[in-house]
Amino acid sequence: MKKLVLIGGGHSHAIALKKWGINPLSEVELTLITNVVKTPYSGMLPGYIAGFYTFEQCHIDLPSLAEFAQAKLYIDQAINLDLEKNLVICENHSPIPFDLVSIDIGSTPATLTIPGAIEHTIAVKPISKFLQYWQQLVDEIQQNPEQKIRLAIIGGGAGGVELAFNIHRHLTQIYQQANQPLNQLELHLIHQGERLLSERHPSLSQKVETLLKKLQINLHLNQTVDQVEATENSIKKISCKSGLTLDCDRIFWVTQASASPWLKQTDLATNEQGFIRVNDNLQSISHPQVFAAGDIATMVNYPRPKAGVFAVRQGQPLLENLKRSLQEKPLKPFIPQQEFLILIGTGDRKAIASKGWFNIGPNSLLWRWKDYIDQKFIKQFKT
């Protein structure tokens, strides 16, 4: 009996597990290794931050999904691969053998080179850890709404911008309900580029910057953070290369992604950021028994941004090639789209749609469309 092991419960693997459960291969033992029980759907994260969704509504229950796929489940952290003996080395369990292994463990923000960033900031990825911090912060503010809070978001890509909109919406609502002035919240968004969303069209950047300024969110462009330190009373001090300094109570880190450090201990071919280099079949270019998808993978022929849309699209072709490999059939190439639509929630049940040079919104119809797409995606794992 052949052994297929999935490491991580990301979007691609969630789709693969659901489809495997519907149409499994006989004579294959399937195993899932994950360090979280509930995996968040990134598309609904901004809505959860804004208070539009409950925790259950935007999370996939991995034990239920593994049971549906008739997969063995290990709640554990993979920390290495023995690619000569084909073993997954785990933190708490004995090594798990495989014939094929697939990796979908997401990414983490690249904070390693900034002094103090790891110790004094809250990384938005992995999302599951960030959500614990977020809930603690919401509870603190609800219990003591008279106290002013200063927050900073480092990173002005789509993730940082959406986070700013939705944090502002939820926390100002708490202050309103407690009859407190809205200036209790001081929110900063720091970005090293000349404009927010620098990977998108300038017209979108201008629109988003105008909306954020209307909400009195402080924008700091052309600012590169070079140090974060803790001062007295647990206050965090951000220092930028320009000389700008900011004192904050909490700092959220949403910058360029990097790979989990343990992958560098393996012999897998990776790029400079540590992401697994895969071919058009989502297969490691150095070890054919290893596949990878989602943020942790970089397609050598089709480099794309680290975005959830690509992880979702890779789920079906990943599963198909895993099955084909197990059956010793030729693999099928997957070509990702070049341009992709993004829907940015602005925290007020409105959204902006953007693709290439085109953008429209914010309006409530686009938010309802986004909500429909997200609810439809998550619903397949609830039934």
TrEMBL record:
Source organism, top-level taxon: Bacteria
InterPro entries: FAD/NAD-bd_sf, FAD/NAD-binding_dom, NADH-Q_oxidoreductase, Pyridine_nucleo_diS_OxRdtase_N, Reg_chr_condens
One Pfam family in the UniProt entry: Pyr_redox_2
One GO MF term attached to the UniProt entry: NAD(P)H dehydrogenase (quinone) activity
Known cofactor(s): FAD
UniProt keywords, alphabetically: FAD, Flavoprotein, Oxidoreductase
EC top class named in words: oxidoreductase
Residues of the FAD/NAD(P)-binding domain: 3-315
Enzyme Commission no: 1.6.-.-
The keyword Flavoprotein belongs to this UniProt entry's keyword annotation: yes
PROSITE patterns given in the database record: RCC1_2
GO biological process, one term: aerobic electron transport chain
Membership in a protein family: Belongs to the NADH dehydrogenase family.
Listed NCBIfam families: Nterm_to_SelD
PANTHER family xrefs: APOPTOSIS-INDUCING FACTOR 1, SLR1591 PROTEIN
Name assigned to this protein: NADH dehydrogenase-like protein YutJ
The encoding gene: yutJ
